[in-house]
Amino acid sequence: MVKLGLFALLGFSWASFTFADSLGVESYRDAQLVKSRSEQAVSVEVPLAKIQRSGRGWEPEKVERLTGNLVTSLYKIDRNALLTDVYQHYYAELTKNNHQILFECQSRSCGSSNAWANNFFDDYLLYGSDQSQSLLVVKTASSLYQILYVNRRGAGDVMVRLDQVAMPNEDMAFVNVMAQHDINDIPRIRRLLTDLPAGQSVIGFVTSQQRDRESAVSVGDRYIEDLISGLGVRLAEKVRFINLADMGRASLGVDRVSFVMARP
Protein backbone atom coordinates (compact mmCIF):
# COMPACT_ATOMS: atom_id res chain seq x y z
CA MET A 1 0.00 0.00 0.00
CA VAL A 2 1.04 3.60 -0.53
CA LYS A 3 3.18 5.11 2.20
CA LEU A 4 1.95 8.70 2.51
CA GLY A 5 1.82 11.59 4.96
CA LEU A 6 -1.35 10.23 6.52
CA PHE A 7 -0.91 12.02 9.82
CA ALA A 8 -1.23 15.36 8.06
CA LEU A 9 -4.84 14.46 7.33
CA LEU A 10 -5.90 14.97 10.93
CA GLY A 11 -6.57 18.68 10.42
CA PHE A 12 -9.28 18.15 7.78
CA SER A 13 -12.99 18.38 8.62
CA TRP A 14 -15.23 15.33 8.37
CA ALA A 15 -17.46 17.04 5.81
CA SER A 16 -14.62 17.62 3.34
CA PHE A 17 -13.07 14.16 3.69
CA THR A 18 -13.30 12.09 0.48
CA PHE A 19 -11.46 9.19 -1.07
CA ALA A 20 -8.96 11.53 -2.71
CA ASP A 21 -8.28 13.03 0.71
CA SER A 22 -7.22 9.58 1.90
CA LEU A 23 -4.21 10.03 -0.37
CA GLY A 24 -3.42 13.45 1.03
CA VAL A 25 -5.30 15.70 -1.43
CA GLU A 26 -8.13 17.86 -0.12
CA SER A 27 -10.94 18.24 -2.65
CA TYR A 28 -12.16 21.60 -3.92
CA ARG A 29 -15.19 22.86 -2.01
CA ASP A 30 -18.47 21.24 -3.09
CA ALA A 31 -16.66 18.91 -5.52
CA GLN A 32 -18.83 15.88 -6.33
CA LEU A 33 -17.15 12.51 -6.78
CA VAL A 34 -18.43 11.13 -10.09
CA LYS A 35 -16.47 7.88 -10.05
CA SER A 36 -13.33 6.35 -8.63
CA ARG A 37 -11.44 3.11 -9.06
CA SER A 38 -8.29 1.44 -7.80
CA GLU A 39 -6.00 -1.12 -9.42
CA GLN A 40 -2.91 -2.90 -8.18
CA ALA A 41 0.31 -3.59 -10.06
CA VAL A 42 -0.87 -2.08 -13.35
CA SER A 43 1.14 -0.57 -16.19
CA VAL A 44 0.80 3.22 -16.21
CA GLU A 45 2.06 5.92 -18.57
CA VAL A 46 2.93 9.18 -16.82
CA PRO A 47 2.71 12.08 -19.33
CA LEU A 48 5.70 14.39 -19.43
CA ALA A 49 4.88 16.47 -22.53
CA LYS A 50 1.95 17.67 -24.63
CA ILE A 51 -0.12 15.16 -26.55
CA GLN A 52 0.36 14.77 -30.31
CA ARG A 53 -0.50 12.50 -33.20
CA SER A 54 1.43 9.23 -33.27
CA GLY A 55 0.73 7.02 -36.24
CA ARG A 56 -3.04 6.63 -36.36
CA GLY A 57 -3.51 7.60 -32.74
CA TRP A 58 -2.48 10.15 -30.13
CA GLU A 59 0.02 10.01 -27.30
CA PRO A 60 2.18 12.41 -25.27
CA GLU A 61 5.52 13.30 -26.85
CA LYS A 62 7.25 11.92 -23.75
CA VAL A 63 6.06 9.49 -21.07
CA GLU A 64 7.49 7.60 -18.14
CA ARG A 65 6.28 4.01 -18.06
CA LEU A 66 6.02 2.28 -14.72
CA THR A 67 4.13 -0.42 -12.86
CA GLY A 68 2.36 0.60 -9.68
CA ASN A 69 -0.83 0.81 -7.65
CA LEU A 70 -3.28 3.23 -9.26
CA VAL A 71 -6.12 5.26 -7.77
CA THR A 72 -8.20 7.28 -10.24
CA SER A 73 -10.86 9.80 -9.20
CA LEU A 74 -13.12 12.03 -11.30
CA TYR A 75 -14.84 15.06 -9.77
CA LYS A 76 -17.47 17.47 -11.05
CA ILE A 77 -17.60 21.05 -9.81
CA ASP A 78 -20.44 23.52 -10.32
CA ARG A 79 -20.35 25.62 -13.49
CA ASN A 80 -20.22 28.81 -11.41
CA ALA A 81 -16.76 27.93 -10.12
CA LEU A 82 -13.86 29.86 -11.60
CA LEU A 83 -11.58 27.55 -13.54
CA THR A 84 -8.48 29.36 -12.29
CA ASP A 85 -9.59 28.96 -8.67
CA VAL A 86 -10.13 25.22 -9.11
CA TYR A 87 -6.75 24.69 -10.73
CA GLN A 88 -4.91 26.83 -8.19
CA HIS A 89 -6.52 24.88 -5.35
CA TYR A 90 -5.27 21.55 -6.68
CA TYR A 91 -1.93 23.04 -7.71
CA ALA A 92 -1.38 24.15 -4.11
CA GLU A 93 -2.40 20.71 -2.80
CA LEU A 94 -0.11 18.81 -5.16
CA THR A 95 2.94 21.04 -4.84
CA LYS A 96 3.00 21.43 -1.06
CA ASN A 97 5.97 20.00 0.83
CA ASN A 98 8.22 20.79 -2.14
CA HIS A 99 6.86 18.04 -4.36
CA GLN A 100 8.70 17.85 -7.68
CA ILE A 101 6.85 19.18 -10.73
CA LEU A 102 7.58 16.83 -13.63
CA PHE A 103 5.38 18.56 -16.21
CA GLU A 104 2.83 21.35 -16.41
CA CYS A 105 0.92 22.85 -19.32
CA GLN A 106 -2.12 25.02 -19.89
CA SER A 107 -4.40 25.87 -22.77
CA ARG A 108 -3.25 24.97 -26.29
CA SER A 109 0.28 24.17 -25.11
CA CYS A 110 -1.14 20.88 -23.78
CA GLY A 111 -2.31 19.80 -27.23
CA SER A 112 -5.78 18.50 -28.07
CA SER A 113 -8.30 18.23 -25.22
CA ASN A 114 -10.20 15.67 -27.27
CA ALA A 115 -7.05 13.53 -27.43
CA TRP A 116 -6.38 13.81 -23.69
CA ALA A 117 -9.97 12.93 -22.85
CA ASN A 118 -10.67 10.13 -25.31
CA ASN A 119 -7.24 8.73 -26.15
CA PHE A 120 -5.10 9.14 -23.05
CA PHE A 121 -7.54 9.16 -20.12
CA ASP A 122 -10.26 7.24 -21.99
CA ASP A 123 -13.00 9.40 -20.47
CA TYR A 124 -15.16 11.59 -22.70
CA LEU A 125 -16.37 13.55 -19.64
CA LEU A 126 -13.03 15.37 -19.62
CA TYR A 127 -13.45 16.82 -23.10
CA GLY A 128 -13.68 20.59 -23.31
CA SER A 129 -12.07 23.53 -25.04
CA ASP A 130 -8.34 23.30 -25.73
CA GLN A 131 -8.01 26.81 -24.31
CA SER A 132 -9.50 25.95 -20.91
CA GLN A 133 -7.50 22.80 -20.06
CA SER A 134 -4.66 22.39 -17.56
CA LEU A 135 -2.40 19.42 -16.82
CA LEU A 136 -0.04 18.99 -13.88
CA VAL A 137 2.23 16.03 -13.07
CA VAL A 138 4.15 15.86 -9.79
CA LYS A 139 6.22 13.34 -7.85
CA THR A 140 6.37 13.26 -4.06
CA ALA A 141 9.31 12.39 -1.85
CA SER A 142 7.76 8.94 -1.33
CA SER A 143 7.74 8.33 -5.13
CA LEU A 144 3.99 8.86 -5.49
CA TYR A 145 3.12 10.15 -8.96
CA GLN A 146 0.10 12.48 -9.19
CA ILE A 147 -1.48 13.40 -12.53
CA LEU A 148 -4.05 16.21 -12.56
CA TYR A 149 -6.20 17.21 -15.53
CA VAL A 150 -8.74 20.04 -15.28
CA ASN A 151 -11.12 21.34 -17.94
CA ARG A 152 -14.56 22.90 -18.35
CA ARG A 153 -17.08 20.91 -20.36
CA GLY A 154 -19.32 22.46 -22.98
CA ALA A 155 -22.21 22.21 -20.50
CA GLY A 156 -20.23 24.43 -18.12
CA ASP A 157 -19.27 21.98 -15.37
CA VAL A 158 -15.63 21.87 -14.32
CA MET A 159 -14.21 18.34 -14.44
CA VAL A 160 -11.19 17.29 -12.39
CA ARG A 161 -9.35 14.03 -13.02
CA LEU A 162 -6.74 12.96 -10.46
CA ASP A 163 -4.62 9.84 -10.98
CA GLN A 164 -2.25 8.76 -8.21
CA VAL A 165 0.31 6.03 -8.80
CA ALA A 166 2.49 4.48 -6.10
CA MET A 167 5.22 1.89 -6.38
CA PRO A 168 4.11 -1.57 -5.15
CA ASN A 169 6.93 -1.68 -2.60
CA GLU A 170 5.68 1.50 -0.91
CA ASP A 171 3.65 -0.23 1.78
CA MET A 172 2.40 0.48 5.27
CA ALA A 173 4.95 -1.55 7.19
CA PHE A 174 5.83 1.57 9.15
CA VAL A 175 2.58 1.63 11.08
CA ASN A 176 1.97 -0.38 14.23
CA VAL A 177 -1.58 -1.73 14.24
CA MET A 178 -2.94 -1.57 17.79
CA ALA A 179 -6.28 -3.26 17.08
CA GLN A 180 -8.25 -4.73 14.19
CA HIS A 181 -12.01 -5.35 14.12
CA ASP A 182 -14.74 -6.47 11.78
CA ILE A 183 -16.28 -3.44 10.09
CA ASN A 184 -19.65 -4.15 11.75
CA ASP A 185 -18.33 -4.73 15.27
CA ILE A 186 -19.42 -1.31 16.55
CA PRO A 187 -19.51 -2.35 20.26
CA ARG A 188 -15.82 -3.33 20.31
CA ILE A 189 -14.82 -0.27 18.31
CA ARG A 190 -16.73 1.97 20.73
CA ARG A 191 -14.99 0.29 23.67
CA LEU A 192 -11.58 0.79 22.06
CA LEU A 193 -12.18 4.51 21.53
CA THR A 194 -13.71 4.98 24.97
CA ASP A 195 -10.62 3.49 26.62
CA LEU A 196 -8.16 5.79 24.83
CA PRO A 197 -6.11 8.11 27.08
CA ALA A 198 -7.31 11.70 27.28
CA GLY A 199 -6.23 13.67 24.21
CA GLN A 200 -5.20 10.56 22.25
CA SER A 201 -6.66 10.00 18.77
CA VAL A 202 -6.31 7.15 16.28
CA ILE A 203 -6.42 6.50 12.55
CA GLY A 204 -8.69 3.73 11.28
CA PHE A 205 -7.76 2.07 7.98
CA VAL A 206 -10.92 0.66 6.36
CA THR A 207 -10.67 -2.17 3.82
CA SER A 208 -13.41 -3.35 1.48
CA GLN A 209 -14.04 -5.20 -1.75
CA GLN A 210 -16.25 -4.77 -4.80
CA ARG A 211 -19.83 -5.95 -4.37
CA ASP A 212 -21.86 -6.59 -7.53
CA ARG A 213 -21.69 -3.27 -9.42
CA GLU A 214 -20.59 -1.24 -6.40
CA SER A 215 -16.86 -0.49 -6.46
CA ALA A 216 -14.59 -1.20 -3.50
CA VAL A 217 -14.14 2.55 -3.09
CA SER A 218 -17.89 3.14 -2.80
CA VAL A 219 -18.26 0.24 -0.38
CA GLY A 220 -15.47 1.67 1.77
CA ASP A 221 -17.07 5.13 1.78
CA ARG A 222 -20.36 3.56 2.89
CA TYR A 223 -18.61 1.64 5.66
CA ILE A 224 -17.08 4.87 6.96
CA GLU A 225 -20.44 6.66 6.95
CA ASP A 226 -21.96 3.77 8.93
CA LEU A 227 -19.07 3.77 11.40
CA ILE A 228 -19.36 7.50 12.07
CA SER A 229 -23.12 7.18 12.52
CA GLY A 230 -22.76 4.21 14.87
CA LEU A 231 -20.06 5.81 17.01
CA GLY A 232 -21.76 9.13 17.60
CA VAL A 233 -20.20 12.58 17.55
CA ARG A 234 -18.11 12.31 20.74
CA LEU A 235 -16.31 9.09 19.81
CA ALA A 236 -16.11 9.91 16.09
CA GLU A 237 -13.99 12.94 16.98
CA LYS A 238 -11.29 10.58 18.26
CA VAL A 239 -10.71 8.75 14.98
CA ARG A 240 -9.82 9.61 11.40
CA PHE A 241 -10.96 6.92 8.97
CA ILE A 242 -8.91 6.24 5.83
CA ASN A 243 -10.57 4.39 2.95
CA LEU A 244 -8.05 1.86 1.59
CA ALA A 245 -10.73 0.10 -0.48
CA ASP A 246 -9.09 -3.07 -1.86
CA MET A 247 -5.54 -1.68 -1.92
CA GLY A 248 -4.54 -2.60 1.62
CA ARG A 249 -1.96 -5.21 2.57
CA ALA A 250 -3.17 -8.77 3.06
CA SER A 251 -2.56 -8.46 6.80
CA LEU A 252 -5.24 -5.75 6.99
CA GLY A 253 -7.89 -8.20 5.81
CA VAL A 254 -11.13 -7.37 3.99
CA ASP A 255 -14.18 -5.59 5.40
CA ARG A 256 -12.19 -4.70 8.49
CA VAL A 257 -10.91 -1.58 10.24
CA SER A 258 -7.35 -1.46 11.61
CA PHE A 259 -6.37 1.18 14.16
CA VAL A 260 -3.02 2.88 14.71
CA MET A 261 -2.12 5.62 17.16
CA ALA A 262 -2.05 9.12 15.69
CA ARG A 263 0.89 11.32 16.47
CA PRO A 264 0.12 14.20 18.85
TrEMBL record:
Q: Which residues form the signal peptide?
A: 1-20
Signal keyword on record:
yes
A Pfam short name: DUF4892
Cite the InterPro entries for this sequence.
Answer: DUF4892
Alphabetical UniProt keywords: Signal
| Name of this chain's protein | Uncharacterized protein DUF4892
Source species of the chain = Marinomonas aquiplantarum
From the broadest rank down, the organism's phylogenetic lineage runs: Bacteria, Pseudomonadati, Pseudomonadota, Gammaproteobacteria, Oceanospirillales
